[in-house]
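The freezer alarm interrupted the setup, so I double-checked each line after restarting. Inputs confirmed:
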Amino acid sequence: MFDLTGKNALITGASGGIGGEIAKTLHAAGATVGLSGTRVEPLEALAAELGERAHVLPCNLSDGAAVDALPKAAAEAMGSVDILVNNAGITRDQIFMRMSDDEWGDVINVNLTSTMRLCKGVIRGMMKARWGRIVNVSSIVGATGNPGQANYAASKAGMVGMSKSIAYEVASRGITVNCVAPGFIATAMTDKLTDDQKGKINQQIPAGRMGTPEEIAAAALYLASDQAAYVTGTTLHVNGGMAML
Amino acid sequence: MSDVADRVRKIVVEHLGVEEDKVVEGASFIDDLGADSLDTVELVMAFEEEFGIEIPDDAAETIQSFGDAVKFISSAS
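Predicted 3D structure, all chains:
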């Protein structure tokens, strides 16, 4: 149903579980993908798996100059950036009363500031093309809060407010800016939890299970498609009913 | 100078869809030529491309009228 043939998509955090799946899904829909991430090896493995229409674009998002260079590198590799998926994110969990300025700053810098810089870097080309899709991967935690994650929750809620503001400004140019907010998703990170811990988490989820990376990727694909042209400034919550927002 | 003015005028006419004779020296993009704030960003982008120059954000903010643009580009290129 959703055809991205001829579109070029830049995905950050493509070495991770969710980002990798988003890249695969957009690629399967016909898009050329630029795979960005800090670790080169998993990116190259993914590019090899995808075959044609896949470019490896390593970038350390905590390095401002590298972030500024990424949209240009992506446009050079693919010809343009029509779709940007800001998926990369880090956590530095700590109870608020012990949270250091560095723990706060690192998370805000990578999750929120780099998203802002990448949006700025790609919108110029999208404005000219009169077509663009930005999908920012937020989190349920940005809406509900979570103990130990004041920094992460602030960065993810900040993404939502920023996305809405940019969405206002660029809507007349055929550019949409939306967020996907995952709940608990089964990835390598959650595999480490014990069955007991998983059981407790699942009890809080009306669907009774964790989500899959594919279910997040499907939401990103929709928001990146032509069919979602009239959807902008919204947050699509994909959380099994854990928070009905 | 006149060459710069002609090229700038052409971009403004094309981008904003206004009559050529409206694009006079004091014509403000927003107040007189119907541009919105994003149009002014796009105009600056078009000027950068046409003249092969880079216009930093703080300078771009001072380019409010046709005359401002011609003056800035003439001194920059």
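Quick read of the result. Chain A touches chain B at residues 124, 127-128, 169-170, 172-173 (CB under 8 Å).
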